[in-house]
Amino acid sequence: MRIISGLYKGRRITAPKKLPVRPTTDMAKEALFNIINNQYYFDAISVLDLFSGTGNISYEFASRGTEDITAVDENYGCIKFINDTAEAFEMTISTIKSDVFKFLEKSKQKHSIIFADPPYNFELAAFSKIPELVFKNELLEEEGVLIVEHSKHTDLSQLEHYSHSKSYGGNMFSFFTK
């Protein structure tokens, strides 16, 4: 994986093979950030990266100037890799080792963007729990957005607060707003 744009543009990041991850493809990530770039100033937002895995999305935000980034994953190896990479690149990424659903139930901090990249094999009930908890606990700022990455074979359009989806190859991004 590589960083697409910003201060660390072109830098390659190689995650250990033993991590249980499926990083967002460069093509899908570039398309997603083109959308976000037209709506937000990266240096003025707060980002919550759920199911953060390798930290791929967090690094992209940090490279573009975002300083308020929290990455949440339940896998110790993923959290350690994110911490080590963030330290090497001098990025301000806070990490939390936690089950994402338990974290969302307890969290009170609001964010401009919440990005969730859960396992593609989640059941619809597990996918639906993400926006349910985000909106119930009011974790988005006024003009904030929840973006959920999933397979093109998963349809989240019937979930509450759904706005629209964008498809890139086998990847889909579903957007949820207030």
TrEMBL record:
InterPro entries given in the database record: DNA_methylase_N6_adenine_CS (IPR002052), RNA_MeTrfase_RsmD (IPR004398), SAM-dependent_MTases_sf (IPR029063)
Gene3D superfamilies on file: Vaccinia Virus protein VP39 (3.40.50.150)
Pfam family of the protein (one): Cons_hypoth95
UniProt KW keywords: Methyltransferase, Transferase
Domain of life: Bacteria
CDD domains in the record: AdoMet_MTases
Keyword match Iron: no
UniProt keyword Methyltransferase present: yes
Protein name listed in UniProt: 16S rRNA (Guanine(966)-N(2))-methyltransferase RsmD
Organism of derivation: Winogradskyella damuponensis
